[in-house]
Structure formats: structure tokens, C-alpha cells
Amino acid sequence: MTSRHIAVDLGASSGRVALGTLENGKLHVEVLHRFPNGGVPVRGGLYWDILGLWREVLHGLKLAARQGDIASVGVNSWAVDYGLIDPQGHLMGQVHHYRSPRLNGVMERVRAQLSGERIYDATGIQFLPFNTLYQLAAEVPGELARAQTMLMVPDLLHFWLCGQAVTERTNASSTQFLDPQTGEWATELLDALDLPGRVLPHIVEPGTVLGELSTDVAQETGLQGLQVIAPATHDTASAVAAVPARGEGWAYVSSGTWSLVGIEAPQPVITPRTLAENLTNEAGLDGTTRLLKNVMGLWIIQQCNEGWGLDYGDLYARAAGEAGGTLIDPDDARFSPPGADMPGRIQAFCRETGQTPPQTPAELTRCVLDSLALKTAQILDVLAEVSRQPITTVHVVGGGSQIGLLNQLIADASGKTVIAGPVEATLMGNLLVQARAGGHLPGDDLRGVVRASVELLTFKPGGADLSVLRQHFQSLTRTHNEAEV
Ligand code: LFR
């Protein structure tokens, strides 16, 4: 049995349209179209070029049409951002970027109105200043009153593809106003903030057939008779669905612009301890919970490299030759905004914490990678503790899984075996959920298909003794963790 599906994966720094062919229990992924993405600054605001992204998607679909006979298409993207739709079905205004300065101070204001405990008890979601809850609170008065519906970015693209305006569950959970116990919107949080819960669409599960490709899109792209199927539309949820793990005792790192460090739990874990650690309980595939923590990730290096313009392979090879040992807390709020002064921000952090600042691109990169590895190890310990499950293996998936140095550092810092790959976990998770929904994947073993389809690399701990560095890191981050929740 052969089936073919198209996955659209929109990431914060790049997007792609890929064709997946499922044949004899193996999935072959071919990226047909790759395009850059990023925030567009305008007069102090920061936005996504959503129409530009849509044009790239249409272009990718045209390329796919040349391949003939495709069963379905589905879109995933980063989380939390949305568009507002007016009663005529038109997009209102722009789609704001989650790093927009419009959010400065908003989370603090909302938390002064509703207590942190109340928000966390109702949602189990990590406090991040850009959660949709704070974005809605930052809307210009009147905008929400005019809106008929709020659609998350992948939902918006599905709406444009087939006319169905619904929200898919995994991404809905990133808003911080979905109740993981009832599975419904936690509208009482919006009511308490005077925000209109009526704009929230009906929630559907990953794997829901949304409809047929609209006639206008079919005409524009040359694709005929395709179903639009919602995958796990949050990119991290699709990536976790494709983690090639088996059995128990494993964690994952979805490594890219962000580093999402977590485990898959059978149900949400919402306790004073998970609140204190600021862990998130995002919805996963098939009713699972993604108990994880956001770590700033490769964003810091990406922003540095905007100025350096270096080849990433060379940069990481040079970083591997550095002694390392200078550390930052990658989750310090100063590293979140975009900007060419990222090396300066790293150096300032080092100076403030009594360390000699790294100077060269290789030294700066090594400093970030060491810090990311130590942060990952720290979170893995917390996850094992709160879930009462030992973790022995860490699956690193996504673009960052190609950085051998980082994989080895995570193994050394955590004392756990790291298994790296697949690079295209998000695309694979997206494609496999579509294939299953369309009845093309007998059985439920998505992860088995991934294991059969890709080569994985193993990194054993023991390269270096990092106990002193771990202690140093612990003392650097303690202050920050306390400030976070
Ligand atoms: C990763 C990701 C994270 C989310 C962040 C912002 O691409 O989706 O899971 O917290 O982007 O949306």
C-alpha cells in the first residue's frame, strides 16, 4: 500500500513544503520547497509576513501537484500566534510575532489581576510572556469586539485551504486558556479579563479531516481532490509524535530555534512543584500530555550569526575545538528579543556574573552550547523527579539533532545516552498523522514507522566530567528560576 501526503511545516526561521510517501511501513520525506521566515519589524511592532508565507505554501503545493496522486495536506507551525477573522471571513490586520514588544509587561499585568496559581491550575501551562492569553490582553480595544473568530496560525492556513474554521487541540493548548482536564476552553480566565470567549472556535483532535481543498486553491495549484487533514498542528507536538522511542524511561529534546525538553505523560501533572519549576502540560497526540519546558535554544546562536554570516557547519566545528566553561542562563529574558547585539548580551551576562566574556564566534557559540546542554540536564532531573520515572535515554530530534557537539554535551551533562534523529521529526509526525487519519497506516505504531525509516546516531556519556560546570551552572540559574514564576 502506498500513499502520498503533503506536510507544510512553518518554523520561526524557515518554512517548508514536503512530500511524504508511505510505502511498506516506511516513510520517505522529500522537501519540495524551503523558504526563509522571520519577524518583520514595523514602527516598533513585530509581525509575521503571513501573506508571504501563504504565497510560499501555494508555490510548494504547485510543485507537489507535478508529482500527481496525493491524498492529503496538513499544516503545522510554531505555537501561540493567531489571526483575527471578521464576520465576512477576512483576516483583520496583521499577525503579531510572539516576540513583539507589544507584550512587554502584559503578563505581569494579567498576573496581578488573576493569580498565577489560578491560571496554572486551570491550564497547567508554563508562564511565557507571549502565551496567547497575554497576546489577547494586549489587543487594541475594539479589535476583539469586531472579530468573529480567532484562528491560530495553522488553523488560519487550513481555513484558507478548505474554508473550515476550527482549532486543533495540540496548538490550542499553547494559548494558556485550554483546560487540560475538561478538554474545553477555560473561558472563565478570559471572562475574568473581560476578553470575549465567543471568538474561540470549536476544538478538533489531530487527525481530523477538515474538508476538501477549496476550488480556488485547487485551481491555483493544480492539485485536485485532496483532503485537508489537521495533523498535530503545534510543530512540537508533531515532532514528539515522531520521536523514535520505544518502551519507557525516555525523554526528548525537540531542538531548533527553541529547545523543548520533555517527556510524554499519560495525563497532566499540575502540582505546586511543576508550577515552581514552570513546567508546561501541552496536549500531545492521542490524549497524551507533553510535560516539558521551553529553553531558549539555538535562537541565541541564530541571532548572533545574523551578524557573523558564517557557515553553521564551520561554526560548530570551530566551537568543538574550544575549551568552553563560560556559561550563561539561556532563559535569561535579555536573550529573547531579536537583534544584532546578541553577542554583546552574552558578554554582558558573563561580566555581570564575574566571568571573562567569550570573544570570538567559536567561543560565543561554545558558551551557548555548553549552557544549553547543562540546562537540558537540569530539566531532565526535574522531569524524572516530578514524574517519578527514571530517564535513561534522551531522544534529540529536529534540526539541532545534527549538531554532534551539542548531542555529546547533552550526554555528558546529563549522564544519559543521547539518540539523535530524525532531523525531520516534525514533518514526519505531521505526515504520519495524516496517513493514519486517511486509513493508510494500519495499526497505531507511528514511532515504529519512524524507526524503520531513518538512521539514528548514538552518543554515550563519559566524554568529560562536567560536575564542576554543573555546580557553576546551578548557581548561575538559581536566581533566574526564582524570578520566573
Ligand atoms: C517551537 C515552538 C515552541 C513554542 C514556540 C513559540 O517551534 O512551537 O513549542 O513554545 O515555538 O511558539
TrEMBL record:
Domain Carbohydrate kinase FGGY N-terminal positions: 6-240
InterPro entries tied to this protein: ATPase_NBD, FGGY_C, FGGY_Carb_Kinase, FGGY_N, Rhamnulokinase
4Fe-4S is among the record's keywords: no
SUPFAM superfamilies recorded: Actin-like ATPase domain
Top-tier EC class: transferase
EC number: 2.7.1.5
One BP annotation, GO: rhamnose catabolic process
Ranges of residues in domain Carbohydrate kinase FGGY C-terminal: 251-437
Entry-linked CDD domains: ASKHA_NBD_FGGY_RhaB-like
Key words, A-Z: ATP-binding, Kinase, Nucleotide-binding, Rhamnose metabolism, Transferase
Gene Ontology terms for molecular function: ATP binding; rhamnulokinase activity
Pfam families in the record: FGGY_C, FGGY_N
The family this protein is said to belong to: Belongs to the FGGY kinase family.
Protein name listed in UniProt: Rhamnulokinase
